[in-house]
Request: fold
Amino acid sequence: MSAPKLSDIAKRAGVSAAAVSIVLNHNETKRVGLAKRQLILKIAKELGYTQNVLAKALVERRTRLLGLMVPLRDPIFFNQFIAQALSGIQSTLSSRGYNLLVYSPSGRPGRATRDQILESKFTDGLIFINTRLCAPREISQTIHELDEAKIKFVMINSYYGRELIDYVGVDDFAIGEAAGFHLLARGHKSIAFLSGSQHLPTNLQLVQGMRRAFSDSGVELPESRIGYTEYQQPTAFMVLDRWFASKRDRPTAVFVGDDQLLNHLYDYVEARNLKSPSDIAILARGNAGFISMLRPQPTAFAIPTFQMGEVAAARLIDSIENPSHRRTRILLPFQFMPGQTT
Amino acid sequence: MSAPKLSDIAKRAGVSAAAVSIVLNHNETKRVGLAKRQLILKIAKELGYTQNVLAKALVERRTRLLGLMVPLRDPIFFNQFIAQALSGIQSTLSSRGYNLLVYSPSGRPGRATRDQILESKFTDGLIFINTRLCAPREISQTIHELDEAKIKFVMINSYYGRELIDYVGVDDFAIGEAAGFHLLARGHKSIAFLSGSQHLPTNLQLVQGMRRAFSDSGVELPESRIGYTEYQQPTAFMVLDRWFASKRDRPTAVFVGDDQLLNHLYDYVEARNLKSPSDIAILARGNAGFISMLRPQPTAFAIPTFQMGEVAAARLIDSIENPSHRRTRILLPFQFMPGQTT
DNA sequence: GTGAAAGCGCTAACAG
DNA sequence: CTGTTAGCGCTTTCAC
Reply:
């Protein structure tokens, strides 16, 4: 015997399948008389009836499923940032009755997006968590494809393009500025910035923010003081060695663009037997969870990753359920976490 | 215009929807003549046709979706163990063309399972990751409900019940035994076991394993040397203080049942200013990832969590795709990780 | 070879 | 108030 369906109940109760559907879905309906209603309910229970969500979704044109898309080579669940964002997403989803469909990377890199858009018919909308693997151009193209296919979506993290989309991120310019002011206030004049990739929009924002902070102070942030590590530890070490080669001219403070870079910097400090903040002040930008686990505790600007997930999911659901939804770009405030390294 | 469907293509091509379906699905079919086939393909591309997975799933009775069920109060993605298992699961899924549906906890604790079984119609099967919140009785009941509903599933972690199910875990008895032998070999005679909850099957297995190892040696593991902490740090401290109260009678080595307990023990060692291994040898059981991040590096038996996820997902997919699948209980071997604490 | 018809399980609109 | 009808978009038989 396969699972009982509406028509099975209907047969036994001597009514039409439609009647059963109404009784089961609209709890207190008056469409069906009390006697029949109770009979139907009773039989449904006897048979252990459960809906076929698939059939229901087909006709209702909604699944209450949200798709997750994360361009990342490594397993996404290992990534602290993603884990936090996912937790925030989950929090929203469970309160609003949605579930999350995690797409497995298809392997074929190029066709991934298109294929997954295809698959997305399973979902009412898509959540993109951008990573540093996302080139602005690709993101932009994805956006156009999604819009063309009329697929609702929201993006989290590092999108600075021109298209107006539902986006939740953090104000990196403001972080850069705050970092600049913080270091100025501590009396630093020779400041460096450890960055990932040159073309990463986040890094651009941070640099611009810092320069803005410095603008009235006479302090500068020359290109030579911006280190591009490409997220390679050896490269990071090279950059740092260059900066620290001359005792006289070395920076007194380094601002670090993200968790992984911070890790490299900590490795370096340990390897070269430096002390922070005495030899070098360290100011970081990163995930609260990650940062609070480090020893010594870095002074840092924490990104509200959990909240980003929460808000993004909420925006997406709003846009799904409310047709007159207007797209918004939301920049969440960062949080200053005092530590021992500045 | 809503998304183009089979019949749209059919109309334009002057054929029936069925023909289009055949062409699109069975790549090299001979059912349809070459000319028509190419026409259909061309029109499909022009229209930007994409399948409606939902409709397809309804008729094919399979979604290529696997559901994930994790009974855990906190956000599951924060949990190292789960994250690792998920990564393993993902790895299998992406190579076999499945996707993962993460159910959001419904809030209502009691009805959760039933509701989720209902929802599971979306999926071809369910993956359960048991946590220490899972009482054996509940697990057992879940199993019966699933079987009754003819839902395929696999369980990961801490199931020691009688029902024959697809299960992937780690051989805790063997770990306990190996732990016992390891400590004996190091000359310890006074050994304690720091455990979570008394009724946790895992802990039972570990204790039995240790006792088996000790059986010919004269060393004992009395109840007084088993500390139940209920995963509370204060309780752990109480237990440890009791053990360490008398200088003469204190244990020389402690075996720790899992990551969280190990954390408590490390806290304790730091708080009481002890040194390991000189004051106290520490032997742990836990996740490779977590353990390798600790300083000092604990000597430990690592649980192959990633692999557990991988294998479990593979088993589940096998059982879905192969009707004559036979249920198996798989116990994965642990891995010894030498460290600095024994 | 080809196309038409039936049906997956459900719901909303429509007559009675 | 009640029940019947017509689809949702797709696939697979089955006749032609």
